[in-house]
Amino acid sequence: MKYIPILAFCSLGIIWGSNFIYMKLSTELITPMQVVFYRILFGFLPVFIYAYVTKTLKLSDLKHFKHFFVMSLLAAVI
């Protein structure tokens, strides 16, 4: 039972580490900007679907759109 966290940590490391290999291979077929777009899109979709299903999204949350937009630009640029 005490080896489960170690096994989970190693498994996540392998999955996360192999991501770089696949990103390098994908840039041979599509442009780097498309890679960034698809990574953001496929990262956003599960979060959005989960928020929609659990009804945690509200129209009043749109007032924070400007802050999230600036944060996303800073995260992608810096």
Concise account of the structure shown:
This protein is mainly α and 78 residues long. 74% of the residues lie in helices and 0% in strands. The model has no long low-confidence stretch (mean pLDDT 87).
Sheet of most strands: none
Mean pLDDT: 87
Flag low-confidence runs: none
Whole-number total of structural domains: 2
**Rg, Å, rounded:** 17 Å
Helix share of residues? Answer: over 70%
Overall strand count: 0
Q: Distance N terminus to C terminus?
A: 41 Å
What percent of residues are in strands? under 5%
Element-by-element helix/strand order? HHH
Shape: extended
Structural class: mainly alpha
Number of helices: 3
Outline the fold blueprint.
Layout: H1 4-26, H2 32-53, H3 65-77
Provide the descriptors you would attach to this structure in a database record:
3 helices, 74% helix, 78 residues, mainly alpha, 0% strand, 2 domains
Please explain how this structure is put together.
This protein is mainly alpha-helical and 78 residues long. It folds into two domains: 30 residues; 48 residues, no CATH class. 74% of the residues lie in helices and 0% in strands. It is extended, with a radius of gyration of 17 Å.
